[in-house]
Amino acid sequence: MEKIAVIGAGSWGIALAQLLAGNGHQVTVWSIIEDEINMLKEKHEHVDKLPGVKLDESIEYTTDLKEAVTGKKLIVLAVPSPFTRSTSASMKEYISDDQIIVNVAKGIEESTLMTLSQVIEDEIKNVPVCVLSGPSHAEEVGRGLPTTVVVGAKKKEDAQFIQNLFMNEVFRVYISPDILGIELGAALKNVVALAAGIADGLGFGDNTKAALITRGITEIARLGMAMGGKFETFCGLTGIGDLIVTCASMHSRNRRAGILIGQGKTYEEAMAEVKMVVEGVYSAKAAIKLAEKYNVKLPIIEEVNHILFEGQPAKEALVNLMLRDKKVEHPDLEW
């Protein structure tokens, strides 16, 4: 049994806390929101974000960040991506060298173009920072439905340690050294999922979605490999796997927000209706800045940016994609 802190009491943090408690670990959940912690203590259920999932009564809850992280071997950082830096800065004085942080949020910091693990390392020195990602909706993990993810770490032994803590008969965990590829796949798929949702909101069909998924993973891999990620990662669970589930499922907040945008709402109105942080909105601008930096073309992600931030009608974006210059699908193949 290990002592584990889960920092962030959103749906994903709570689902992972439930999983880890079920695996026999001593889990403490932190949230900055006092009403949320009181609700969890009283009801043993997150009635707003994970209704119907009754939580293990051994899980402890606190608003005291020092209490949450002190003496915990593993810290699961599960706050939304816009709050990764501020939360890391707040807890760094309580972190010791013998702890491990695993980030489970997905995104890119727009102001620095850092991945979230790089943001954490920028704030907290000399502590291993790992990542956990994959096609894993909290609503299904919380209910114990079979799910598979990947842990990325610089040291194999750290990845194996986390693998052993999380893995059970319904939650299979692979390990990988490609932290960068895992994080880029996780962040950029949210932007493509917005596009898939917009297409749904416009009333388009399965052909459209298949095209967006297929060409979307091409864009993600193109940028990811230019930055140093590995091709195999984008073919795996945190690339095409996560992209498929995020584009296809109504559990996906990015797809749901995209549907609303396709129906004519602004991204602000869509996020307000979804009532959760829509990570793809925050990653979209960062993706374009990275594309410019690495001289990579991302036509789908470019059009998403035009829709979100420049007021371009969604149907016009589709026409722009369909009538781009004629292309060869795989230029490296010989005739």
The helical percent reads: 40-55%
What is the overall number of helices? 16
Instruction: Assign an overall shape.
Output: globular
Structural class: alpha/beta
CATH superfamily heading of the largest domain:
NAD(P)-binding Rossmann-like Domain
Distance between the termini: 59 Å
Order of helices and strands: EHEHEHEHEHEHEHEHHHHHHHHH
Poorly predicted runs of 5 or more residues = none
Secondary-structure arrangement, i.e. CATH architecture of the largest domain: 3-Layer(aba) Sandwich
Describe the structure in your own words:
This protein is of the alpha/beta class. The protein has 2 domains: 3-177, 3-Layer(aba) Sandwich (Rossmann fold); 180-322, Orthogonal Bundle (N-(1-d-carboxylethyl)-l-norvaline Dehydrogenase, domain 2). 52% of the residues lie in helices and 11% in strands. Strands 3-2-1-4-5-6-7-8 form an 8-stranded mixed beta sheet, sandwiched between helices. It is globular. The chain starts with a strand and ends in a 13-residue tail after the last helix. The relative contact order is 0.11. The mean pLDDT is 94.
